Amino acid sequence: MSRDDGRIEELLARVTALEARVGELETQAAGGGARRSSVRRASSESGGGGAALDAFAFTTRYATAQLTVEEGWIELHEHSARPQLQRLIREVVEVEGPVTERLVLDRVRRAWGLRRAGGRVQEAFEQAVRQLVARALVERSGDALRLPGRELTVVRVPDPADDDTKRGAEDVPLVELVTALREVRAQLGTVDDDELTMQVAKVFGWTRRGGAIQERLDAALTASRG
What is the β-pairing status of strands 59-61 and 139-141? Predict the structure, then answer.
């Protein structure tokens, strides 16, 4: 056997070993994917024929805006802070829209290093939003802000590894709750309102439906029938 023949056989052996390793990794990935899928299924036997809810089919992980305050020494309510305030609002809306004004204000407040949003801060924020809407840089869609013409196509759910992605019921736009209700109903078929709202609450990571959560879900139910 020549030296070249030996090198060829060595290369062929390496290729064979690599192909075997790739096949092994693909098998492992398929098994892991099945496990992840089963975890993400908010599975529950419903009263409408026992269909399992596959929340992963209509959801994605919520993404949060990463804000940078360049002149934090300026008081947020001061007129000189208005350009930067408007920029921050637009950045939140661009990444998180549709997003409630309440949540936008909270993002901006925290980026500015404020422990709370007092009356002057809230007034400055509301004025900044009105100016952005008047200039058609953002628009109101129900109880939320969004970029002009951008429609919601998927339901956003929290990332277990990121607390900032967790939203209370009051911070989920009504249009998103309505979308979740319709998607859940489409999968489960005929279910009563109690089962339907319970499944939607699970999708958003809410372990109970008391108080404000149930009130918000009821409002979404009403809107979904309109």
Answer: unpaired
Domains of the chain are: 39-58+154-226 (no CATH), 63-151 (1.10.10.10)
Question: The pTM is what?
Answer: 0.77
Handedness of CA 65, 70, 74, 79 (dihedral sign): negative
Q: How many other CB atoms sit within 10 Å of the CB of residue 93? A: 25
What lies within 8 Å, CB to CB, of 176 at 6+ separation is: 98, 152, 155, 156
* Phi, psi values for residue 2, rounded to 5°: -75, 170
State pLDDT tens for residues 48-98: 445 689 999 999 999 999 999 987 778 999 999 999 999 999 999 999 999
Distance (Å, rounded) from C-alpha 73 to C-alpha 208?
Answer: 41
Q: Please report how many Cα atoms fall inside a 13 Å half-sphere around the Cα of residue 7, on the Cβ side.
A: 3
Maximal C-alpha separation, the chain: 88
Phi, psi (degrees; rounded to nearest 5) at 149? 80, -5
Which residues, 6+ apart, have CB-to-CB distance to 212 below 8 Å?
Answer: 168, 169, 170
Rounded to whole angstroms, the Cα distance separating 86 from 137 reads 10
DSSP 3-state percent helix, strand, coil across the chain (nearest 5): 60, 5, 35
Say how far apart CA 28 and CA 217 lie, in whole Å.
Answer: 40
* DSSP class per residue in 51-69: PPP-GGGSEEE--------
Q: Tell me the one-letter amino acid at 30.
A: A
